[in-house]
Description:
Elements: E1 3-9, E2 13-20, E3 25-32, E4 36-37, E5 43-45, H1 47-61, E6 70-77, E7 83-85, E8 95-96, H2 104-112, H3 114-124, H4 133-143, H5 145-150, E9 153-155, H6 157-166, E10 171-172, H7 173-176, E11 181-182, E12 187-188, H8 190-195, E13 208-209, E14 214-217, H9 220-226, E15 233-235, E16 238-239, H10 240-247, E17 256-260, E18 264-270, E19 282-284, E20 291-296, H11 302-310, H12 317-325, E21 335-337, E22 357-359, H13 367-388, E23 396-400, H14 407-417, E24 420-424, H15 429-441, H16 448-455, E25 458-462, H17 466-499
Parallel strand pairs: 1-6, 6-16, 10-13, 17-23, 23-24
Antiparallel strand pairs: 1-2, 2-3, 4-5, 5-8, 7-9, 11-12, 14-15, 17-18, 18-20, 19-20, 21-22, 24-25
Amino acid sequence: MAFLIGIDAGTTNVKAVLFDLKGNEKKVVYRKNEPIYFSTSHVEQDMNVLWEKVLECLTELVQNYDKDEILGISLSGQGEGCWLVDENGEPVSHSYLWNDGRAKDLVNEIFADEEMYRSIFETTGTQPLTGTALVLLLWSKKYRKKELDRADKILFAKDWIRYKLTGKFSLDTTDAGTSLLNIKTLQPAYELLDKLGLGEYKHLISDINKPSDIAGSLTKEISEITGLNTTTPVAYGAVDVSLSTMGVGAVNSGEICTILGTTCATNIVTHEITPGKENTRFEKHCVDDLYINIQPTMSGATNIDWVVENISSTKSFDEMDEEISQLKPVPTGVIYHPYLNTAGERSPFFNTDARSSFFGINSHTKRKDLIKSVYEGIAFSIRDCLEATGQTNGGTIYLAGGGARSKAWSQIIADVTNKEVKVSEGKEFAAKGAVMMLAVTLGIYKNYNEAAAAMCRAKATYKPIKENANVYNYFSQFYKELRLSYDALWNKRYRILKEIGEEMY
C-alpha cells in the first residue's frame, strides 16, 4: 500500500489525515485547537501550542504504518491573520487570527480614504478587511511597532507548520495572495507597501512558490520523533479555502464550492479576474491558471453552535435535523441574519458593525422555528453571496465542511439557492485537496481532472423542491432588503456603545 498525508491546521481543530491513492480517509487524528478569544474582538493563537498539536497528530497518525509507504506530506491551514517570527524562527508574539477584529477602526479609516482603499483592493484583489495580513501589519506599525521591528518573517498557519517540519521559510501564492501579492502578477506588492508606509517591512515577505511544489523534506529531529524518513517530501501547501475547493472536485472554471465550517465560504472557480470590482474577492486556486472568486462570511456553522448552546432544547444535531425537516419554509415568518462575529461581516458586503438578529418573532414562534430560521439565514447568506457575483442561474454547488452532514440543511441550501447540491464523500476536504495536489506533483495522476475523477465522489445529491424554492425566492429578497436597512442602524449601535464606554461587542 501507498499513502499520502494531509495536515490541516484549522481554527477549531488541527488534523492529520492518512489517505490512500483513491482519496479514501484511512486514518484521521485530530486535536482541539486553542485559539484565544478575548472579551473584546481580539482573537489570538499561541503558535507553539498549535505546532505541538500538529506534531502530536502526525506522530500518532503514522504509528503502525511502514514509513516507506508514506509518499509525502502536504499542508493546509486557516488563512490570513498575522503570524510573525524573529530571525531565530521564534514567534514574536501570539499570532493574530483571520477573525480578529482589533483593526476595526483602522479599516473604517481606510474605507473612508478612497485612494488608499482602491489601491489595496485593485492590487491585491481583496478588500482591506480586519483579519488580513496587510491590515494587521498597518495596525502593528501603529500600535506595536517594537514587536513588529523584531520580526524577520511573516508567515501563515501552514507556513509555520512547514517551517517546523522542514526548517525552511517560504510563502505560497494562495495564502500570500490574499493581501501581500499583486493578484495579477502573483509577486510581492512592494509598490503598495511603499505607498502605505510599510516599505521598511518588505523583508518580512519570503520567497513565493507554487503550492503544489515540494518545499523540502523532514528534518532529522522530526524524523526521529515521528519515525518517518528524512527523505519524506513536504509540499508548500495552500490556504484551506483553496484546498477545500479542490478537495470536493471543483477544479474547473465555473464550478462552485460552499464550505460550511467556522466561516461559510462560497467559492466560484474562474479563469478571469477583475480586481477591485464591487463585492468580488479573488484568491489563487491551486490549479495554475485558475482563481477563486471567494465570498467568505465571518460566521458559518458557529451560528448553529450558538443555537445549540442558547436556544435548542437538545444538544443532538441529528434531533435538530429531524425536527426542522418537518417544518415548512420560514414557518412563522422569522428571518435570521447570521452576522454573529464581533468583527462584523465581510461577504457579500463589508460592515464591521454588522450583527445577528431575528426579525418577525411573534407569540406563535417556537424554539424549533428559531432554529430553522438560523439554518435558513445561512442559506440566504449563501444566495446573497452568489447573487453578488452574478451566479444566479442553475448549476451545482459542491458542499463541504462539518455542516454538510446535515441532510435538512443541505436540502434548505438547494431550495434557497435553487441549485443542485452535491455532498462530497468524506470529511477532511482541505486535507484531501492537499494530497490531491501532492498526487499530481508526484506523478501519480497526470492532472487535476484525473485526480478529481479518481479521488472525489458525491455521497448524496439534493435537488431543489419547487414549492419550497418559490417560497424562499420571496423571502431571500426580503432578507436582503432587511440587511440593507440595518446597515445604518448597526453603525449607530456601535457609536452609542462607544460613547457610553461599553465593550465593543
